[in-house]
Design a protein that fits this description.
The structure is a single chain. This protein is mainly alpha-helical and about 170 residues long. The chain has helices spanning about 5-20, 25-35, 45-50, 55-70, 90-100, 105-125, 130-160, 165-174; strands spanning about 45, 70-75, 85. The chain has a 3-stranded antiparallel beta sheet. Strand 2 (about 70-75) and strand 3 form a beta hairpin. Helix 1 (about 5-20) packs antiparallel against helix 2, helix 2 packs across helix 4 and helix 6 (about 105-125) runs antiparallel to helix 7 (about 130-160). The chain starts with a helix and ends with a helix.
Length: about 170
């Protein structure tokens, strides 16, 4: 029996909530973005609450964060006092926003703590198997964060070139 579109959309939003959590954002943000992304029209807070099952307070908080990141946009409907929201459909803009959010102070604190842990381990080095294992794991995480930083810087540099120029450059490389 084929799945209903409603079930497919719900599964998609749940999937985005897991991706959101993986990137260090609240699960609700992913679910809200998923609902808005698959909606052909802008939705009110009440409609988002109904679609996601989140509380109105949680939706309001996450919507503000998504808007600050440029992943959703507020809009109005003539004759209606409610605010409505729609998802950013330009993936380049969305990824750029997510990478810029990487510079968020909470995430920056986590990155700094990894670097500090490595420094502490190096200053107090003990040569044994467990110490080496822990150090290698923390170093791998640091390498991942360094790669994210490099990607962020590259995206910001590409942005300064302008999307049309980047598209031209990539077209030449094919």
């Amino acid at each position: 029996m084929p799945q209903s579109l409603a079930k497919i959309k719900k599964d998609f939003s749940q999937g985005l909530s897991h991706i959101s959590r993986f990137w260090g954002f609240p699960k609700g943000m992913g679910a809200i973005f998923g609902v808005l992304y698959l909606s052909p029209t802008a939705l009110s807070l009440d409609e988002i609450v109904q679609e996601t099952g989140l509380t109105k307070g949680a939706v309001s908080t996450e919507i503000r964060a998504l808007a600050r990141m440029g992943l959703v946009h507020r809009c109005t409907k003539l004759g209606d006092r409610k605010d409505y929201y729609e998802a950013e459909a330009d993936f380049y803009a969305a990824i750029r926003s997510i990478l810029k959010e990487r510079q968020n102070s909470e995430f920056e604190r986590a990155v700094r703590s990894v670097k500090e842990t490595l420094g502490t381990m190096e200053e107090n080095w003990v040569e044994n198997e467990e110490w080496n294992f822990v150090y290698e794991r923390i170093q791998a995480l640091q390498n991942f964060f360094d790669a994210i930083d490099s990607l962020t810087k590259a995206v910001v540099r590409l942005e300064s070139l302008g999307l049309s120029n980047v598209t031209k450059i990539l077209g030449v490389l094919k």
